[in-house]
Structure prediction request, 464 residues.
Amino acid sequence: MAGNPVKSFSCPACGGIVEIHAVGHTISAVCAHCSTLIDTANDHFKIIRKEHEASRDTDIPIGAKGVLDSIKWEVIGYVEKKDKSSLSFWEEYLLFNPYFGFRFLIQSDGHWNLATITKRYFPLAGSASELELDGEKFSVYCRGESVVEYVKGEFYWRVRKGDEEKYVDYIAPPKMLSVEKNKQEVTESLAEYIEPEIIEKAFAVGLHGKTGIAANQPAPFAGKLGKIWKIASLSILAAFIIQWSMGSGTLVNNTRINIAQNDKEKNYSTAVFNLPRRSNLSVRSSAPLSNNWMELELSLVNESSNETYQSRQVIEYYSGYEDGESWSEGGQIAESTFSAIPEGNYRLVIDPSSGLLGSSDVSMEIKRNVPAWGNFWIIFLCIIVFPVFALLYRWSFESRRWENSDYAPAIYQSGESDD
Amino acid sequence: MIRIFTFFCASLVIMLAYANYQGYVFSNIFSSQSHAAQSSNHYHK
Prediction:
């Protein structure tokens, strides 16, 4: 910005020095000493509005220089506006670069936007609920009427305290398209959300923290949610195929034993069977019990090492007829699976106990390498938890974004009524 | 973040394939299957 000419003159109201930085562009300036608004369109420097107000400090001082988007900007003007109905405030800093013109830094509730005046014409701007710019759809977020509360610095348009205009904000986060109408003109500006840390670094200032969610604040996982769900879906599909390809297991032993009431101290054993490699082992027991129970202590014994793996099964089945309705509970089948049994020769030792009065046959089917669908469901849960969290967090964020708008999409409406 | 999640998912799928091949049953980590080495042939009755 070297060589940018600065023009100075004495304030016609207080005599203080007033500097013009955007020479040839500025048509009004506010005296930093007495806040009097001066016409700078020519060298007569007429008073537009006389004030006796001390200049306020702003978060970014007038005259501060900073680099944004690789362009060096100088803050030359400041306007504070208020919404007439909601009474919410926002600040607009006018930035100037002699080669790139003007930009606006807009602050509201600690959220910042860098805006530029668009040269586009939107015939339905203001009345439409949706606008399209470069293929991007902008949805209406708010409509209102603003009033200028405070002015400081210099401007390329006439601005004074009390100026009123209607505005409509359209959003396509992180962008915002604002349409402002006053008696003289319609102005359309395109803003993009900018993190306050970038402003702090660029202008070497300290800023207030953010409160709430800004209209066009980028949502968490923006542009990534679809990819996250795609990766999760493909992973679950791969896991399902792996699980499904295991088939239904290989039968290694089929045994039928008869358990009598007076055989409580007796153990039963299957024939020896072989596991050719490390695998799981499923034992499925069934007994035609009725209003009775049976407990089976299972011990899988390695023939060569005597190493044992233990499990327990309970079969109980009760049924009856009561108050005109039949009922039943329990079942006649129990199933348990031994995990990761090393290769070798094994036999299964069964130690039963039961409430039998007579005797009962128990059929036992032993299979190796059975598909443990529990494994799949655990992997499924591990994969799906993050995408679901991301989706819910995004939905919650969007709901909070739209809770300050009268034009919230139905999906983000709270459903609360005012009556 | 996308790379980390992709790596995480791929690791889980590979873990499932390995666990299934080796016969591991994840739910048995919390179940009653116990494992004991026997010093004598206790079950030969």
Notes: Confidence is low (pLDDT under 50) at residues 36-45 of chain B. The interface with chain A takes residues 1-2, 5-6, 8-10, 12-13, 15-17, 19-20, 22-28, 32-43, 45 of chain B (CB under 8 Å). The longest strand of chain B covers residues 34-37. The two ends of chain B are 61 Å apart (CA to CA).
